Amino acid sequence: MSAEDQSQLSPVTADIQLRLLLFTDERLAHRSEIKRVQDYLERLRQETDFSLEIINIKDQPQLVELYRLVATPSLVKVFPEPLQVFAGSNILPDLERWWGQWLDTVATLRKQLGDRQLAEVERCDRRLAASQTEHSKEVMRLSDEIFQLQREKEALLKQIEFKDQILAMLAHDLRSPLTGTSIAIETLEILSKRPETEKTVGLRGQLYQQAKNQLQIMNRMITELLQESRQLLTKLDVKPQPMALSPLCQQITEQIQERFQRKSIQLVLDIPRDLPEVYGDRELIRQVIVNLLDNAIKYSPEGGLVRLVGLHRTLQQVQVSVIDTGHGIPEEEQEKIFEGHFRLKRDATQEGYGLGLAVCRQIIQAHQGRIWVDSTPGQGSEFHFTLPVSGDRQA
Question: Strand pairing partners for 242?
Answer without folding.
Answer: 279
